Amino acid sequence: MSRPIWTGTIAFGLVNIPVKLYSAIHTTSLELDMLDKKDKSHIRYKRVNEKTGKEVAWDNIVKGYNLNGNYIVLEDKDFEQASAEKTKRIDISSFVQEEEIDPIYYETTYYLEPDKKDQKPYALLRDAMKKSGVVGMGTFVMRNKEQLCVVKVLKNALVLSKIHFEDEIRPLDEFNIPTAAVKVTPAETKMAVALIDSMKAPFDISEYKDRYTAQLLKFIENKAKGKKPAPVKAAKKVPEDVSDLLAQLKASLGGGAKAPVKKAAAKKAAAKKAPATRRRKKAA
């Protein structure tokens, strides 16, 4: 089992629940090494003193903050002493409705695991939150930074999602976003709604796969065997002129622009509704 990223307690009111924080996510992208083009040797990065040009060992590297031109060196214990409670505690300050939190604030999700001797208070918080239909808003310190977080229920577990502070979100007025002045005709809206309706499907995360990584790995394996890659299929041409938006919507509806997962999702839904005897017969 992997090692916890952080250990401490969840605190709400006077209740404290010792927990361990584990990453809930693992990436599926291929690990590519950086090599020297000449002999395929690994490229290695060195930690170099900018004045002497000499490499510095990890044991001799410290962290420092530039205060008015002078560096104040900080040791590991200094970060804890600055606010000892925050480094070891997830403080839940309020409980809110999850739908009130805009998805743009979400960052990374972690699993919260209780100590064996503290199963009951963990289960109590989980069941109470589930019954109340709320999530907990809180803060804690990890990697020398205060984190804003949401604690919520996922099946039988409590999970923690780091979320951004408000001032970390870039304002929309920095971008060229269409305003209400950009007029869309009722006919275009009606056709767009029809296209969306034709692509509706039940949400099923298992239908979405990282196909590119699998194809890239296959390409690498074929290249290792000396096989030539198959000719690249020409991509569908996207009209450069977007003035005739209605014609494009009609073409999308007539061209079978339905979501690729819709058929599979519908098939699964039909299988669930099928009589039990029929499903057993099919399995046999």
Task: Give an overview in words.
The protein is an alpha+beta fold and 284 residues long. Among the domains are: 6-26 and 80-167, Beta Barrel (Ku70, Chain: A, Domain 2); 186-227 and 244-283, no CATH class. It has helices at residues 76-82, 84-87, 119-132, 186-198, 211-224, 245-254, 260-273, 276-283; strands spanning 6-12, 15-23, 63-67, 70-74, 89-96, 106-114, 135-142, 145-154, 157-163. A hairpin with a 2-residue loop joins strand 8 (145-154) and strand 9. Helix 4 (186-198) packs parallel to helix 6 (245-254). The longest helix has 14 residues, at 119-132. The radius of gyration is 27 Å and the shape is extended.
Give the secondary structure arrangement, pairings included.
Layout: E1 6-12, E2 15-23, E3 63-67, E4 70-74, H1 76-82, H2 84-87, E5 89-96, E6 106-114, H3 119-132, E7 135-142, E8 145-154, E9 157-163, H4 186-198, H5 211-224, H6 245-254, H7 260-273, H8 276-283
Average pLDDT reading: 84
| Gap between N and C termini | 38 Å
Number of helices: 8
Please provide the count of β strands. Answer: 9
Could you give a short account of the major beta sheet?
7 strands, mixed, barrel
Q: Percentage of helical residues?
A: 25-40%
Task: Just name the CATH architecture of the domain at 6-26 and 80-167.
Answer: Beta Barrel
